[in-house]
Design brief:
CATH architecture of the largest domain in chain A: 3-Layer(aba) Sandwich
Strand content of chain B: under 5%
Shape of chain A: elongated
Largest interface: A-B, 27 and 26 residues
Helix content of chain B: over 70%
Number of helices of chain B: 11
Shape of chain B: globular
CATH topology of the largest domain in chain A: Rossmann fold
Largest sheet of chain A: 6 strands, mixed
Oligomer: heterodimer
Number of strands of chain B: 2
Number of domains of chain B: 1
Helix content of chain A: 40-55%
Radius of gyration of chain B: 18 Å
CATH class of the largest domain in chain A: Alpha Beta
Strand order of the largest sheet of chain B: 1-2
Chain lengths: 297, 244
C-alpha cells in the first residue's frame, strides 16, 4: 500500500477483513508470514509498529463510564504523549469532529454516530501514519454514514494513509482509491473501483427468474436496454456497481449465469481501457453477443 | 512507565467515578460477618485470650484484601468481553509489564480502601488492635499476590461465566478456610497441612499476629513475596495469550 492511499477491503462477513486488521494492529497473533507497517515489522518491532497506526474497531470500545475527554486523555497517555500535546490535540480533534462542547459528557450519553466520531478522534490523537477503520459505518443510519464518509475523506486529504474494511458496496465505491475483493480469506482482485467495475461492463439489467434475481452486464446503456426489452419482462436498468464486479469475480451468484458470463467475456476480450473510444457499432456487436446468450438460455 | 501510568490512571478514574458505590460494596460483607459471627454469636467465644470480634477483624482484613484485589479480574473481564476496552491496551505501544503492573496496582489500591473500611467498622464495634507497619506490609503483599493472580486468570479465561466459576471454586473456599474465621489448629493435622499451602493462610496468620501485638513469622512474608512474584510473572506471560 503506498502512503496516502485509501485502500479498502471489500468482502462478505467472514471473508477475513477484520482478522487482517486485528493482525496488523496487534490484537491477533500472526501465525505465518510477515507484515510491516511503515517499515516496522509487526512481530519483531511490535511496539514501534503500533505507534504507526490508529485503530477504529468495528464495535464501540470506549469507556462508557468516563467522559469523552477522559477517554481521549487515556489514549494519549497510552501513546506516550506529553500533557501539553494531549491537551492541544484533544482540543484540536474535538473541534475537527465537531464535538468540542461534548468533551465533558459521559460516553454513555452519546448516540451511536457520535461515539463513532469520538473513536475516530481517538484513533487520530497520536497522529498515526496509517488509520485502520474496521467497518466504520456499520449500524449507522444513512445521514450519519455520509458525515462519517466526509470525515474519512478529510482525514485522507490531510495525508493519512487509510486502510478500511467494509461490506457496504457504496462505501468502498465512494471512498476507496483501490479496492481488494476478499473472499474466504483470499484476495480475488485488487484495482481501482472504476477498473473493477469496467471489468464487468458499464450498464446492468436485473430481472426476476424462478431462482431469484438475475443480472446481465453490458458495455452501453443502449445495449442493456435492447437486451432487456427483447428478453425480459419487468427488468430494471442501472449502472454497474462494485457488487456486480465482486459477484462476477467470486462466481458466487452471477458466474452461474450464461448470459452474464458471455457479457463478461466479451468485455474482457476487448479490454476495458479506452472503452469510451469504441465506435457505437462496436457496442452493438457486444450487446448482440450478450443478447444471443440470453436468447439461448 | 507512561503506559503503566495510563493503565493505572484509567482504573483510578473509574474508581473515583464509582467511589460511593464501591465503598458501600466493600462494607457490606465485612459488616454482615461482624454482625452474624462477631456480635450475635461470638460473645461467648474466646480464642487465644481474645474476644471473637478481635479474632475476626484481622481475618476480615486478610479476606477483604484478597477478595477486593482479586475483584479486578471481574472488571478486566467486563472490559475485555463486554466493552472490548482491552483492545485499546492491546493496540497501544505499551509493554505487557506496563499493563500488568497498572492493573495489579489498581487491585492493591482497592484492597487498601477496603481495609480502611474494615478498620472503621472495627472502631464502630469497639475493637482496638495494633495496626503497625508489619500488618500493612502483609496486607500489601497479600493484595499483590491476589491482584497478580487475578490478572493472570483474567487473561486465560474465555468468558465471563468462567471467571465467576473460578471465584466460586478458588476464592470463596479460601476466604473461609484460610485462617480467617477460625483457628486452623482446630482442624485435623492433615487439613492443617493442606491449608498451609494457601497464601491466604499465611497472610491471615501474619496479619493477626501483628494485630495482637505479637511478632509474625517471617516465613509468611517470604512466602507471600514468592507467590506474588510467581503470579506476576505468570500474568506477564498470559497477556500474550489473550491475543486471539
Amino acid at each position: 500500500m503506498p502512503a496516502g492511499e485509501l485502500f479498502a477491503y471489500l468482502g462478505p462477513n467472514g471473508a477475513g477483513k477484520t482478522t487482517t486488521i486485528r493482525i496488523l494492529t496487534g490484537l491477533t497473533r500472526l501465525t505465518a508470514g510477515t507484515a510491516a507497517l511503515n517499515g516496522h515489522d509487526i512481530k519483531a518491532a511490535a511496539v514501534a509498529a503500533k505507534r504507526q497506526c490508529g485503530l477504529v474497531p468495528q464495535h464501540v470500545n470506549l469507556d462508557s463510564e468516563l467522559t469523552v475527554g477522559e477517554n481521549l486523555d487515556i489514549h494519549g497517555r497510552l501513546f506516550g504523549m506529553s500533557a501539553s500535546s494531549r491537551k492541544q490535540r484533544i482540543d484540536a480533534l474535538l473541534t475537527y469532529i465537531e464535538l468540542r462542547d461534548r468533551a465533558d459528557s459521559l460516553v454513555k450519553q452519546l448516540s451511536g454516530g457520535l461515539k463513532r466520531r469520538v473513536m475516530i478522534a481517538r484513533a487520530l490523537l497520536h497522529d498515526p501514519r496509517i488509520l485502520f477503520l474496521d467497518e466504520p459505518t456499520v449500524g449507522l443510519d444513512a445521514g450519519i454514514r455520509r458525515r462519517i464518509w466526509s470525515l474519512i475523506k478529510k482525514i485522507q486529504k490531510n495525508g493519512t494513509t487509510i486502510f478500511l474494511t467494509t461490506h457496504y458496496i457504496e462505501e468502498a465505491e465512494f471512498l476507496a482509491d483501490r479496492v481488494a475483493f476478499l473472499d474466504g480469506g483470499q484476495i480475488v482482485a485488487v484495482d481501482t473501483p472504476t477498473n473493477l467495475m469496467a471489468g464487468v461492463g458499464h450498464w446492468a439489467i436485473d430481472w426476476m427468474t424462478d431462482d431469484g434475481m438475475t443480472s446481465a452486464y453490458f458495455p452501453s446503456r443502449e445495449a442493456a436496454q435492447a437486451s432487456g426489452a427483447a428478453g425480459h419482462n419487468g427488468f430494471t436498468l442501472r449502472r454497474v456497481n462494485l457488487e456486480d464486479a465482486f459477484l462476477s469475480l467470486t462466481g458466487k451468484k452471477v458466474g452461474a449465469q450464461e448470459g452474464a458470463a458471455a457479457a463478461i467475456q466479451g468485455q474482457s476480450a476487448h479490454g476495458h481501457q479506452g472503452h469510451g473510444n469504441h465506435a457505437p457499432g462496436g457496442h452493438g456487436t457486444h450487446a448482440a453477443k450478450a443478447h444471443a446468450g440470453h436468447g439461448a438460455h | 512507565m507512561q503506559g503503566f501510568i495510563a493503565v493505572y490512571f484509567r482504573e483510578a478514574l473509574i474508581l473515583k467515578r464509582r467511589f460511593k458505590r464501591q465503598i458501600a460494596g466493600m462494607a457490606v460483607s465485612p459488616l454482615l460477618y461482624l454482625i452474624a459471627f462477631g456480635y450475635a454469636m461470638g460473645d461467648a467465644v474466646r480464642l487465644d485470650g481474645h474476644t471473637y470480634l478481635e479474632f475476626l477483624i484481622p481475618g476480615l482484613i486478610a479476606m477483604s484484601s484478597m477478595t477486593q484485589s482479586f475483584g479486578i479480574a471481574t472488571d478486566i473481564n467486563v472490559a475485555r468481553f463486554y466493552w472490548y476496552i482491552f483492545e485499546e491496551f492491546q493496540a497501544a505501544p505499551i509493554r505487557n509489564v506496563a499493563y500488568v503492573a497498572g492493573e495489579v496496582l489498581a487491585g492493591m489500591t482497592r484492597a487498601l480502601l477496603a481495609i480502611g473500611v474494615i478498620l472503621i467498622l472495627g472502631l464502630l464495634f469497639g475493637v482496638r488492635l495494633h495496626y503497625g507497619l508489619l500488618l500493612w506490609l502483609a496486607v500489601l503483599l497479600n493484595s499483590f499476590v491476589f491482584a497478580s493472580l487475578a490478572v493472570a486468570l483474567a487473561m486465560l479465561v474465555k468468558s465471563h461465566a468462567d471467571q465467576s466459576l473460578l471465584t466460586s471454586f478458588v476464592i470463596t473456599p479460601m476466604a473461609f478456610l484460610g485462617g480467617t474465621f477460625f483457628p486452623l489448629e482446630r482442624l485435623p493435622l492433615w487439613a492443617q497441612k493442606a491449608l498451609s499451602i494457601l497464601p491466604l493462610t499465611h497472610a491471615s496468620h501474619a496479619i493477626r499476629s501483628t494485630a495482637f501485638g505479637e511478632n509474625p513469622a517471617w516465613q509468611a512474608y517470604a512466602l507471600l513475596t514468592a507467590a506474588g512474584l510467581v503470579f506476576f510473572w505468570l500474568a506477564l506471560g498470559t497477556v500474550n495469550k489473550a491475543r486471539d
